[in-house]
Amino acid sequence: MGDAGTQERFDALLADCDLCLRRMGISPREYLPSVRLTHNRSRIGSCKKLRGGRKPLFQISCSMDACKTDAQVRDVLFHELIHTLPGCFDHGSRFREAAAKVNATYGTDVRATRREPSREVPTVNKSQVEGLVGMSFFVQGKRYTFTGFNGRPKRCCELRDARGRTYVCAPAYVLAHISAE
């Protein structure tokens, strides 16, 4: 997703974070040595289990857009590496203990919650968009059709693209894009 220099920088920071954890006596489990770069702004990092069992394998992702400095990248990578530790895949007490230890040792800001403020989505009642079912609109050059609603309370609108893939979004998103045409 990024240029080769950006990929190399993120991979080097991942290796450095791993080394820092090992110096502290914390040994992350096996992970892919290359960071999956994304442009996601709402999820600045993720740790995905690719293989389970006694020898799990993880893939670590980091957002190039949300992480502007090496310090921010390191915080995210430390966070995701901690998820590879036994009993730390959630943000429970073991995760928080490991994060506190890393923060105390390296002066980082590893947390269980993201630091980036999420954009406020205006509240729109479902009834305001019910009449728009079947309408199409474009977002960044792609055509989507508003096909209806699902059962989830907050993100209740379903969209379908030209290939037939289904996406879920908030009613405010549909209303903003349909009325913008």
Concise description?
The protein has 181 residues and is of the alpha+beta class. It is 31% helix and 21% strand. The protein is built from 4 helices and 7 strands.
Helical proportion, percent range: 25-40%
Structural class: alpha+beta
Gap between N and C termini, in Å?
30 Å
Strand count: 7
Poorly predicted regions are none
**What sort of overall outline do the alpha carbons produce when their principal axes are compared?**
elongated
Mean pLDDT, all residues? 83
Rg, please?
Answer: 20 Å
Count of helices? 4
Largest sheet: 4 strands, antiparallel
Strand order of the largest sheet: 4-5-6-7
Strand content: 15-25%
Order of SSEs: HEEEHHEEEEH
Can you characterise this structure?
By secondary structure, the protein is an alpha+beta fold. 31% of the residues lie in helices and 21% in strands. The protein has helices spanning 4-23, 70-83, 93-106, 171-179, and strands spanning 36-38, 45-51, 57-63, 136-139, 142-149, 157-161, 166-169. The strands form 2 sheets. The protein has a 4-stranded antiparallel β-sheet. The radius of gyration is 20 Å and the shape is elongated.
